[in-house]
Automatic annotation (TrEMBL):
Belongs to the NOP5/NOP56 family. GO terms for molecular function: snoRNA binding. Its main location: nucleus. It holds the Pfam family NOP5NT. It comes from Ophiocordyceps sinensis. This is Nucleolar protein 58. Residues 445-512, 524-666 are annotated as: Disordered. It is found in: Nucleus, Nucleolus. Keywords: Nucleus, Ribonucleoprotein, Ribosome biogenesis, rRNA processing. Residues 285-409 form the Nop domain. Required for pre-18S rRNA processing. May bind microtubules.
């Protein structure tokens, strides 16, 4: 079995045949390879294949790096088909396994520490082994191929460069410090001449512009400051300049102060430009992170972690405490509670939350941020626009807003609303429909059709009135008694109360649970009390539960304030249309329904039954008026009995709960 050596050079592939089959078993191989004469004796060039161009060299080198056998190398290995068994020394293990997997060749690859010595000797003495190659040409080819390979490795998009964000946010933080120092120095320096101006103007940019525009304080009264200040502050500044207690300064002092004020203005303008640039870069590189946290906090997180990819690889717990490393290690060292948030604390969501809910919102925000970062870093969505790329961030932001509102006990956001990174709520544009004008039939001027259609409608009304007239005949048959007026009044009052009380709006199960927690009751008990009308919601949305005693007092107070007195009429009043209808219903109702009442029926049906009994058997009622009590007293007794039972059940439940609390505290 013959031994061959494959040499990968920047100029092409070289195939060498070893003179000794047991070349790798020689212990003094490294010392012998140091001499070029000995190396030429050991290895003889069988074939050398050159690269046609730099692009071809790049393709071959990229395939070798990926562990694949390129086309030019397979054509070179076809010269070994004549060998029955051949072993090939290869520098790369991946390339050796790829060659052994080729079905058309019977080649066993050889790799190891001894092969590395051979390849080291080949690189040192390559011009002596391959005729026509000089060392200068080999070095140039190696340099060009290395540059092209490194350029091929960097497969990046221009929009994904996060190093620009890191530099911009660091420069922005440095500029904030320098700008603050310059502005405070300007106020202190000019304050010796006009000390009252710093109390009136808090804006650093407006202060610097006023210094440049006015100069000495004596010129302020004559200069027009409307371009720099509003009218109210302009009047206040001019009044303060007239009675100022500052010292006098020279022209040289004022020129130096003006130069410093110019630097403040330039710094402020450049800072605004840099801030807008940073926001645009953040929206292009990490749109979901920008929607969730804002461009400034997101950029600080990227700068703190080093890159967008390293930040995307971090879990939500790491993102949550990123920036609070000192507090974290101090807490771990002293065995105290670890911090709940780092840089993420300055986001608008955590700022909206109260003290007890800040940790929960920070944990949820960090987990949603981790998901959004992975989408930003690894998604191939260069063709999509900004809105499509930030869908995940917007939906996560709305979920977090709703969760914060449930924890705080506020109303949830509607479905159509979107939330911005700074917490602003935006709704879609509303549209209004104009009312369509109704067609005026009288304007047609055709009187025949109108007159023909009118009698039909009138006939329809007359037919209904005719039915009412037939019912009015019953007026002579039925005799109303004033004894039942009280019962009718109580029934009518009940109906009026039902009509006056507005229907409670239906709530979902989650809202029942939330309100029950606020009220300190179970969900079932709260739902029962809410449907009964024992619960009222305040303007803030918190429930107020009334007990039975409080409800009784409220009802009694209402009855005492507005007593209803019916006018006593000795003469028989004329029946109204409603009573006429009731009488007609009493005559038409059969007697069998009155015999077996199985369920409590509404008050209107009770009236009909009572009046039907009076019409059928008026003598029996007159004979035994004292046998049965009035229905209103029976109702009152039943109500009292039910209320007493409910109060007893509630007191039992309260006692049981108190016992449970005592046992748990014990």
């Amino acid at each position: 079995m013959s031994l061959f050596v494959l040499a990968e050079t920047p100029a092409g592939y070289g195939l060498f045949k070893a003179a000794d089959k047991k070349l790798f078993k020689n212990d003094d191989l490294a010392a012998e390879l140091g001499r070029p004469e000995k190396l030429v004796e050991m290895l003889k060039l069988k074939k050398f294949v050159k690269f046609d161009s730099a692009a071809m060299a790049l393709e071959e080198a990229a395939a070798l790096k990926d562990g694949k056998v390129p086309t030019l190398l397979t054509s070179l290995l076809e010269d070994l088909k004549d060998e029955k068994k051949a072993s090939l020394a290869v520098a790369d293990i991946k390339l050796g396994t790829a060659i052994s997997n080729l079905p058309q060749f019977n080649i066993t690859p050889v790799t190891g520490s001894n092969t590395m010595d051979i390849f080291r000797g080949l690189r040192e003495h390559l011009p002596s082994l391959i005729p026509g190659l000089t060392q200068e040409n080999i070095d140039r080819m190696a340099l060009g191929l290395s540059h092209s390979i490194s350029r091929h490795k960097l497969k990046f998009s221009v929009n994904k460069i996060d190093s620009m964000i890191i530099q911009a946010v660091r420069l922005l933080d440095d500029m904030d410090k320098d700008l603050n120092v310059f502005a405070m120095r300007t106020k202190e320096w000019y304050g010796w001449h006009f000390p009252e101006l710093a109390k009136i103007l808090n804006d650093n940019l407006a202060y610097a512009r006023l210094v440049l525009l006015a100069g000495f304080r004596t010129n302020i009264a004559e200069t027009d400051l409307s371009e720099v200040l509003p009218e109210d502050t302009e009047e206040a500044v001019k009044k303060a300049a007239e009675i100022s207690m500052g010292t006098e300064i020279t022209e040289d002092d004022l020129s130096n102060i003006k130069s410093l004020a110019e630097q403040v203005i330039r710094y402020t303008e450049y800072r605004a430009q840099l801030s807008s640039y940073l926001e645009s870069r953040m929206r292009a590189i990490a749109p979901n992170l920008t929607v969730l946290l804002g461009y400034l906090i997101g950029a600080r997180l990227i700068a703190h972690s080093g890159s967008l990819m390293s930040l995307a690889k971090a879990p939500g717990s790491t993102i949550q405490i990123l920036g609070a490393e000192k507090a974290l290690f101090r807490a771990l060292k002293t065995k105290h509670d670890t911090p709940k948030y780092g840089i993420i604390y300055h986001s608008s969501l955590i700022g909206q939350a109260s003290g007890r809910n800040k940790g929960k919102i920070a944990r949820g925000l960090a987990s949603k941020t981790a998901l959004g970062l992975r989408v930003d870093a690894l998604a191939n969505d260069d063709e999509d626009d900004e809105e499509q790329r930030s869908i995940l961030g917007v939906s996560s932001r709305i979920k977090l807003e709703n969760r914060l509102r449930t924890l705080e006990g506020r109303a949830l956001l509607p479905r159509v609303v979107t939330v911005g990174p700074s917490g602003e709520i935006t709704t879609p544009g509303q549209f209004t429909l104009k009312e369509t004008r109704r067609y005026n039939v009288d304007a047609d001027g055709v009187g025949d059709s109108a007159t023909i259609e009118a009698p039909n409608t009138l006939n329809g009304k007359k037919s209904k009135d005719g039915k009412k007239a037939l019912i009015e005949v019953v007026e002579d048959q039925a005799d109303e008694e004033m004894g039942d007026a009280k019962d009718d009044a109580t029934d009518d009052d009940d109906e009026d109360e039902k009509a006056s009380t507005p229907a409670k709006p239906k709530l979902s199960s989650t809202e029942y649970e939330r309100l029950a927690k606020l009220a300190g009751l179970s969900a079932k008990k709260f739902k029962r009390k809410y449907e009964r009308g024992d619960v009222q919601l305040n303007a803030a949305g918190t429930p107020k539960v009334y007990s039975k005693k409080e409800l009784k007092k409220m009802r009694k107070a209402g009855e005492n304030e507005t007593p209803v007195k019916r006018p006593e009429t000795p003469t028989k009043p004329e029946p109204s249309e409603k009573k006429k209808k009731r009488k007609a219903g009493e005559i038409e109702t059969p007697v069998q329904k009155l015999e077996t009442p199985s369920k409590p029926e509404p008050s209107s049906e009770k009236k009909k039954k009572r009046k039907a009994e009076e019409n059928e058997t008026p003598v029996k009622k007159a004979e035994s008026p004292c046998k049965s009590e009035p229905s209103s007293e029976k109702k009152k007794k039943k109500r009292k009995h039910v209320e007493i039972e409910e109060e007893a059940a509630e007191t039992k439940k309260d006692k049981k709960q108190k016992k449970k609390k005592r046992h748990s505290e014990a």
